[in-house]
Amino acid sequence: MKQRSSSRTPQALRDIRSMNVVAIHPQDQDGDELLAQLRRIGCKVQMVWPAQDSLPEATDIVFLAVRPETLCTTLPWLDARGAPPVIPVVAYENPIIIEAVMQLGAYCVVPSPVRSFGLLTAIAVTLNQHRNRQTMERYVRRVEEKLAEQRQIQRAKTILMETRSLSERDAYELLRSQAMTKREPIESIADAIIKAHEVLGFR
């Protein structure tokens, strides 16, 4: 059987070893083991307890102990744009814990008691999925922006068609020629026409 190429593995491991990790976890046996294993991997780790309203700058990934103390705590950074992915550390499986894990948007969990096995895999999977999600979100934003621009152009064409008795093709050509003359994007010309129409009340 032909083996699959592992050329990406060294770079992935280097990425993990250079990460800044925040572990929101009490300094108990699990916390000590988590800290030791993360340092053994090569991560730069900062232990935090209790959970804070903000994270240190340049945090790449967060380990979060899912306990009663964190379940009843609001974490504003979770909803911030560009928030780092979270790996929950869970000691129990019950509906409340499962719901909390789902709300965190976690891709995998680390069970308690913490062990060395599975920790590196959890980090690698979480980072890969998080990057895939970021790529998809950027694509969706670009599509939404493009659709918004097309709607603006269409609205500007409609205004020109109504105010200058132009065909749709001629209205678009007028927009395009103005964009070329002024050396501006056609979307900017469309936006200017729409604003002028709204301010001056052309009919």
Automatic annotation (TrEMBL):
ANTAR domain mapped to chain residues: 133-194
InterPro entries listed in its UniProt record: AmiR_N, ANTAR, CheY-like_superfamily, Sig_transdc_resp-reg_antiterm, WH-like_DNA-bd_sf
GO MF entry, a single one: RNA binding
Matching Gene3D superfamilies: 3.40.50.2300, Winged helix-like DNA-binding domain superfamily/Winged helix DNA-binding domain (1.10.10.10)
Entries under PROSITE patterns matching the protein: ANTAR
Protein name according to UniProt: Two-component response regulator, AmiR/NasT family, consists of REC and RNA-binding antiterminator (ANTAR) domains
Species this protein is from: Paraburkholderia caballeronis
